[in-house]
Amino acid sequence: MTIAILDDDSKRIDAMQKVLSGYDQGVVHFAGAPEMIAWLAGHLPSLRLLSLDHDLGPYEAAPNSVPLPGNGQDVVDVLVQHKPTCPVIVHSSNEWASAGMIVALRQAGWTVRRVVPTDDVLWIESSWASCVRRELASRQTQSR
């Protein structure tokens, strides 16, 4: 089982990895939506949890490539075409985009929660970590 994270901020990724280090799960992270979407094609059934940011900055996926990071909504557009396999956390400070992502996921039957980033990365060790614990515990109870 795997936890997948979409976020382009290395400080956030480091803090999230630290929170998740206590879990017996594989963790993968993506800085751009196209890479996550490609990965999901072969891994969606084995997901335990997804955490998605919306706004992503430009980056080079490969040397001299055109920076096309996409956004969290691109991933949601793919997810809603599939049967829900795991809970999703939307961790974006973009209120309008987050609302759209949440509505689309819920309409497609996905369990989704929102965590609002605050105080640089401090929110990861508090509200995000709490949400992760709750969702992973809930999934463990359901699988028994």
Task: Pick out its properties.
5-stranded parallel sheet, 144 residues, 5 helices, alpha/beta
Task: Give a written overview of the molecule.
The chain is α/β, with parallel strands linked by helices and about 140 residues long. Helices cover about 45% and strands about 15% of the residues. The protein is built from five helices and five strands. The chain has a five-stranded parallel beta sheet, with helices on both faces. Helix 4 links the parallel strand 4 and strand 5. Helix 1 crosses helix 5 and helix 3 packs parallel to helix 4. The longest helix is centred in the C-terminal third of the chain and has 21 residues. The chain starts with a strand and ends with a helix.
